[in-house]
């Protein structure tokens, strides 16, 4: 016996359609409720087209925005800070007179001899290249004017043998984490003059991967490596050159300025384009290893740059009498900071999570005129429709099961 009360497929579809229409009419989303409640077919078609067009515009703009956000753009904030403590620079100086072999005098007589001391008279103050020591931090002076550091050099003009040689000192100011060649990036100091050097500091902070600046925090790497290794991008590159030189020549090439206890190469290696005593395959492997090492040297996440102005003042010579009655004029250097101001460039994410969410909310409001409350209402309507559809399907299954049992009886 068949239950006559079961619904036909057409009546079932009509029931679901009426229920869906009623649910969307009650929706707080005005665009959807207006489409459902419109009786005119042309108007309904027009409103549907407009709704889908604006939805496509919203999706396009949202996808473009999210694509830009996930490229991790950054912005640069410029600040002028006056910290209580600041990173003091390092000083490297060399004498043009290769026969010079005396230390500088002044309030800071401790000099670290690094690098090419066997080839030239070069010395460094406060350098932390390949050193386990922390850099020198200076306190900002707010009560009285006093030079940060002072030096007095004796260029020993009497030791100049060639008339073409210029007596004097080349002096470089640089980051304590980098080794420099004063002959390339230094200033020339003449005998019989005093110099006042005013330093300005520029601080820059970058962001690590996945941001475009893609930097490395060399201090963290240095600490995790038991306070060993380079502490800047330039030092990292010089360290790669040092490793390559030792591998190729079993000595340090004269152009490598990263400090090392390994002996310096002789003149015969200076112009050599390839590694010595190595096969062609070993040379290629060495080149590849050097390239890989060099490419790993990314920008520093924190770097301090020092710029300076130099004031040269001629002084009445202070003659120093020697046993042979020859005379030598001194060079005096006073180093100041410009009120200890630091120009800081900080790279920061252009969009935080909250800002990105606000932008997307603005797109929804402009294109669709929908708020979060209305979005919640849409999901509620979809849930009600799905639940009604499931109930109708379950009731049909129950009717079919009852009908089959009656037929068996």
Number of strands: 11
Number of helices: 9
Radius of gyration: 39 Å
Give start-end ranges of low-pLDDT stretches: 1-5, 100-119, 320-327
**What structural class should be given to the helix and strand makeup?**
alpha+beta
Averaged pLDDT, please? 77
From the spread of the alpha carbons, the general shape counts as: elongated
Task: Please indicate the percent range of residues in DSSP E strands (runs of 2 or more).
Answer: 15-25%
The sequence of SSEs as H and E is: HHHEEEEEEEHEEHHHEEHH
**Helix-residue proportion:** 25-40%
Ends distance: 9 Å
Give the biggest beta sheet. Answer: 5 strands, mixed
Family: Belongs to the amiloride-sensitive sodium channel (TC 1.A.6) family.
Subcellular location: Membrane
Pfam families: ASC (PF00858)
Keywords: Ion channel, Ion transport, Membrane, Sodium, Sodium channel, Sodium transport, Transmembrane, Transmembrane helix, Transport
Explained architecture:
The chain crosses the membrane at residues 48-70, 356-379. It is found in: Membrane. Belongs to the amiloride-sensitive sodium channel (TC 1.A.6) family. It is a multi-pass membrane protein. Pfam families: ASC. It is a single chain. The protein is built from nine helices and eleven strands. Strands 1, 6, 9, 10 and 11 form a five-stranded mixed β-sheet that branches. A four-stranded antiparallel β-sheet has the order 4-3-7-8. The protein is α+β, with helices and mostly antiparallel strands. Mean pLDDT is 77; it is low at 1-5, 100-119 and 320-327. The protein has helices spanning 9-25, 30-37, 41-69, 182-185, 218-224, 233-249, 280-295, 353-367, 372-408, and strands spanning 74-81, 85-87, 90-95, 122-125, 137-139, 149-153, 169-174, 187-189, 193-205, 302-314, 331-349. The longest helix is centred in the C-terminal third of the chain and has 37 residues, at 372-408. The protein is 37% helix and 20% strand.
């Amino acid at each position: 016996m068949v239950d006559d009360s079961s619904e036909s497929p057409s009546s079932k579809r009509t029931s679901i359609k009426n229920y869906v229409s009623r649910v969307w009419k009650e929706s707080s989303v005005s665009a959807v409720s207006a489409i459902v409640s419109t009786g005119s077919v042309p108007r309904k078609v027009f409103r549907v087209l407009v709704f889908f067009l604006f939805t496509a515009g919203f999706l396009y703009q949202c996808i473009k925005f999210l694509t830009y956000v996930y490229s991790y753009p950054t912005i640069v904030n410029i600040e002028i800070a006056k910290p209580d403590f600041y990173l003091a620079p390092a000083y490297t100086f060399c004498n043009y007179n290769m026969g010079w072999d005396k230390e500088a005098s002044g309030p800071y007589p401790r000099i670290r001899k690094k690098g090419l001391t066997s080839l030239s008279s070069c010395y460094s103050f406060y350098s932390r290249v390949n050193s386990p020591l922390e850099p020198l931090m200076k306190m900002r002076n707010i009560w009285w004017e006093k030079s940060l550091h002072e030096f007095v050099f004796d260029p020993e003009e009497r030791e100049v043998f060639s008339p073409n040689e210029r007596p004097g000192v080349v002096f470089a100011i640089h980051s304590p984490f980098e080794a420099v060649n004063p002959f390339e990036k230094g200033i020339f100091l003449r005998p019989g003059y005093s110099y006042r050097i005013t330093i300005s500091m520029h601080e820059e902070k970058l962001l690590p991967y996945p941001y475009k600046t893609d930097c490395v925090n060399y201090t963290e790497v240095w600490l995790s490596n038991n306070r060993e290794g380079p502490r800047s991008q330039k030092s990292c590159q010089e360290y790669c050159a040092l490793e390559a030189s030792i591998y190729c020549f079993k000595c340090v090439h004269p152009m490598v300025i990263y400090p090392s206890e390994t002996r310096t190469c002789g003149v015969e290696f200076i112009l050599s384009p390839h590694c010595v005593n190595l096969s062609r395959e070993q040379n290629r492997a060495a080149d590849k290893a050097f390239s890989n090492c060099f490419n790993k040297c990314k920008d520093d996440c924190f770097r301090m740059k020092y710029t300076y102005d130099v004031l040269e003042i001629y002084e009445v010579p202070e003659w120093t009498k020697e046993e042979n009655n020859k005379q030598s004029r001194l060079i005096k250097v006073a180093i100041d900071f410009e009120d200890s101001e630091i120009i800081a460039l900080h790279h920061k994410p252009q969009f935080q999570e909250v800002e990105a969410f606000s932008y997307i909310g603005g797109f929804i409001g402009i294109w669709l005129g929908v708020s979060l409350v209305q979005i919640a209402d849409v999901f509620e309507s979809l849930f009600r429709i799905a639940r009604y559809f499931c109930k109708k399907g379950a009731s049909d299954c129950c009717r079919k099961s009852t009908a089959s049992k009656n037929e068996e009886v």
